[in-house]
Amino acid sequence: MTDLQFDESTHTYKLDGRVIDSVTTILKPLSDHIYRGVPRPQMEAAAQLGTAVHKMIELDCLGTLDVDGLHERVAPYFPTWQRFIAETGFKVLKTEQRVYSKDYDFAGTLDLYGEMHGKTVLIDIKRTAAVPATAGPQTAAYKLALEEAGLWWVEERYVLQLPNPNDYRLAPLKDRGDIKTFLSCLTIHNWKKKQ
Q: In whole angstroms, what is the distance from residue 195 CA to residue 77 CA?
């Protein structure tokens, strides 16, 4: 796993020079279905802000965030992130951690792994008003890769929603069928690649 590399500009994972399909690419047909009615410019603007909020959280977790240098659209999310930490007691152990499944040959980057309420948890950050249906299969795939590699045990999965700068919601992901949904998408994805 030490050779897993990620090209952020193309969102491409490579292992020993070979392209590895990402969790989000594998789940793209589901995402496309969910957001089919949303205009492309609106999706792109939301994605840009979401990426910036993710980066803010990552830098804060790493202790390198320049709060005074935050863009005016991102800065209002910082107190909400801090409130989430204070109110839940979440302790970050890893952020933006790349994972790879050797058994299923996929890769991804999980947002947050840590401890909360005495349990090890995996948290995916979404800047959406509703929890996307893909969040469960996405986090189940990360859990599978982590546990397969013997890296960490995941007791609970969550989505941290930041729908606006003043609000957060922590939604538990408990559907045991999430991993089956992901593996079904992976099977179809691999079949399509062979055609």
A: 44
